[in-house]
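User: quick one, fold this
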Amino acid sequence: GRMPEPSPSPGGSGGGGGGGVIKKLLIGAGLVAVVLTGAGIATVLLCTTGNCDILGYSTGKAPADTAANDDNSPSSAAPAALPTTSPAGGGPTFNPSLFLNPTAAPTTGPTETATSTPSSLPTSFPTFTPTDPPSPPPSPPPTPNPTKPPTPNPTREPTPRPTPNPTPPPTSLLLNGESGAIVTYDCRFQDYGYAIDIYWSCGDERFGNALRLHTFKRHSQSHRLIFADQKITFRNGILWYEEYSTRRCISIGGNGELYLRSSASNCDQFVLDGSSTSFQIRRVANGDCMVTTSCNDDESTGGSECGGLDHRFLPLEMGSCNNALKFRFQTRAEDCTNGRDEYPENACF
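Assistant:
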């Protein structure tokens, strides 16, 4: 680089005054020798880019012609071509090449040897390539927090509904195995009682209809058999109609009415509470008993017997045992008591 040029001293720029002249010589690539002359002192500086070092001094009066040298000396000038200057007053001779080549002998006068010689300086300087600081080792990936699997909600077992504990039938059922018409005399039509009955009879039965109470049928046949639609067998807690090719048992519907089923697994169990001549029929599942709405609710079936006596019926259903009907088994049919004969066909039995 170029040093800033010092301003001339008030004494002027020529030799013998207090000012100085800068001499610059380009020595090799990147090296500049700068010679300052003035006040009888010459200082040699070696400058690299941005820095200068003092190489040596020379005492004596600066020659007057040093100011004539141009700062713009060509960079190709060799150091040996520099002129040797002698002071006008007979002072010591200053030869710049001494500072550039310390092995050459001075011509005259004392000379301070430079503290450093150009030859000891490197002719070229290593090139420093800036390098990036080493990259820090990569940070290990963050350890993921282990995700806990969702705790499954335990499947709750459905709470079983309590099974009603029906009253089991006693080990010795009253009238177990008994067969006949189950008749009540709590309600009567004239001198007739009412028997549990299938809708219609004599081959025209409607097995899908609800059971009812029907006047206990009479006839004049000598065998005195019970009509098939009124004959029931009580066996092991189940009430069976067994006079048909397919036997059927009694089941309680949702409305409390009585229906027929052909499978025992679909039928209800009952207990006959009381005595052999007067008993209530109680359902084991819920304790209800067989009842009717009212004995005065009888209606005609449209049929008749024994010379024109009406067949009547009443509704039959399950209800409170406080209103339970009292029944008994009848094992034989009665004869027409009015003296009129009645001979039903064999399909009725």
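User: anything notable?
Assistant: The mean pLDDT is 73.
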